[in-house]
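User: Hello! I'm new to structural biology and keep hearing that structure can be predicted from sequence alone. Could you demonstrate with NR LBD domain-containing protein? Please show me the input and the output so I can see what each looks like.

Assistant: Of course. The first part below is the input, the amino acid sequence of NR LBD domain-containing protein. The second part is the output, the predicted structure written as tokens.
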Amino acid sequence: MGFNQFSPINFHPLFPFNKLGFGLNRVLLSACTAYHLVSSHTQTLHLIPRTWKTNTETLQHVINEIDSDIKSFIPFTRNVPILNDISSEDKIILLKRHAFSIYLVRSAPAFTDCGFLLKNGGIIAWEKFHKLFYGGLSIKMKSFATAIELMHFSEAELGVFLMLIMLQPILMKDVVKTGFDNVFMLIENYALISRTLYYKLSTRDQEERLFDRIQGLLEQVNTINNLHNQTLDLIRKNLICFSVPRLFSEIFGVPRTVLDEEVAEHIRRIKESQEYLKSRGLLNIL
């Protein structure tokens, strides 16, 4: 699945813009609800949790998980009215900038007491998770996930929050670097999304002042998004050990690799030997 999925489509709003007095805001909220974006982990899992022998094997599952989540998110971006005025090229830039943040928000329920729960029923123990997202990054991720859960977002609210992340204004140096085109449209859409989320959260609970927490959440997720490149570096440095899907490669700038079963099994055996040596202080690898 590549970026051609951003090709324009005709969006049929759930009701006309001029009804109920909220125009595009209300249509956006309805679209968010219709696409059930509460989380990529909302389905009930009945599989027996499993663990993996090596860090590279575990990281491969994380790669697959992120790739799958991005694929499931892309159709949503094609059906939100506020994104219709943004070119496909600009959408790609925005998705590249915030894909990991979006994944983190959608996977917040996966941060359990026992470890990080994958959609296939596997669970990554926290000890191993800390090795994959090292340097305190895993702690920041878990803290952010807890903050998201405490917001008790509805499906519509979560969808709007994801758009708020994706439509954050871009610094001029990054505009030049990425070639982003319609800066003013981005600023206008961000302001519109902010007002939409403010209205939604205020009508839910005025006393809690929920919208006041949003800026803190944005700062947290932006920090994490900037730090996660260290995990991508682990993948790049050990590229021969991974099968990197096309979409993951395009989004995160990691060279694409494909491992057939025979090669993958051979690499697993090598990694087991390396882990054995590493456990005895004879080898320093991932």
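User: So the tokens describe the shape?

Assistant: Right, they're a compact way of writing down the 3D structure. Reading them back into a model, for example: Confidence is low (pLDDT under 50) at residues 1-40, 42-52.
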